[in-house]
Amino acid sequence: MTGDRIDRFMDGIELTAAGFLAAVTALTFVSVILRYFFSTAIPDSYDLSSLFLGILIFWGIAVASYRGDHITVDLLWA
């Protein structure tokens, strides 16, 4: 029962992280379009995207550590 709650909580964290990733993508796209066509920028867009990327990295590490889904590389492959 408790494991099911934690799994649902982790799924919610992954969905939230996906939302942050979509926000970073949209913010970068809109910022580039505004700079290229209108010679203006979104105030603090670089700081916001850096903050969102930091959240994504740390949440990704936390979820991967909890689930044991680390990316591994075989240095000696038989």
Care to describe what's here?
The protein is an all-alpha fold and 78 residues long. It is 77% helix and 0% strand. The protein has helices at residues 2-38, 45-67. Helix 1 (2-38) packs antiparallel against helix 2 (45-67). The longest helix has 37 residues, at 2-38. It is elongated and about 50 Å long.
Keywords summarizing the entry:
78 residues, mainly alpha
Task: Offer a concise description of the structure.
This protein has two helices and no strands. The chain has helices at residues 2-38, 45-67. Helix 1 (2-38) packs antiparallel against helix 2 (45-67).
Helix and strand topology:
Layout: H1 2-38, H2 45-67
Helix pairs in contact: 1-2
User: Residue-averaged pLDDT, rounded?
Assistant: 83
Radius of gyration: 18 Å
Largest pleated sheet: none
| Class of secondary structure makeup | mainly alpha
Based on Cα principal axes, name the global outline.
elongated
Number of H- or I-type helical stretches = 2
Percent of residues in β-strands = under 5%
Helix content: over 70%
- Distance, first to last CA: 41 Å
Q: Order of SSEs, N→C?
A: HH
Q: How many β-strand stretches?
A: 0
List unreliable stretches of 5+ residues: none
